[in-house]
What does this fold into?
Amino acid sequence: MSDSKQSVGFPYNQGQTNDGWSNEDEATATCACGKVQMVIPLKAPGLQGTFVCHCTDCRKVSASMFATNFTSLDSHTRFVRGEDNLTVFSQSSTTTTGETMANSFCKTCGTLMFRAGTIAPGTRFMRGGIIDDHSLHDTMLKPKVEIFSEHRAAWVSPVEGAEQGKGMGPFVKDKKGDEKKEEGQGKL
Ligand SMILES: [Zn+2]
Ligand SMILES: [Zn+2]
It folds into this structure.
């Protein structure tokens, strides 16, 4: 990993903090108030994949019509500050698999930093919108997969070139013989 922190001070408003950075290996992810900051990997194996999710849970927890996400290995993800400033909401009643999904929010500003599930121990489903270097959304972090695409709002277009998954799409392959329950109700 490189220690160099390039691009400190991006040419736009970073919110309440101005210490986001990126280099070719890693980038910062910061909540709206700046109290929680993480460093996430930009390359495999630390970066496992990028996806958009249109499920109901993602709409609710993101307070938006879909969520932009990427999967990172915990072993390659670290906190700069604020891990103790997270509050966690966990539930399993609406997940397709019945597995628990835990949502970690900044206690101060409410930003959802990541979700983590018993479905995938050792990984986090990070929220893309908290990455400080916006250019990464068009490069390394551009979504390659969409899941629960059957729930996509009619005015949202598919991401060009992204695999269109129904229900959990390619994620279901990672499950050991776990059958999808009612697709229409599915959530990740
Ligand atoms: Zn915050
Ligand atoms: Zn989802």
Notes: The longest helix spans residues 56-62. The pocket of zinc ion (ligand 2) is lined by residues 53, 55, 57-58, 67, 187-188 (CB under 6 Å).
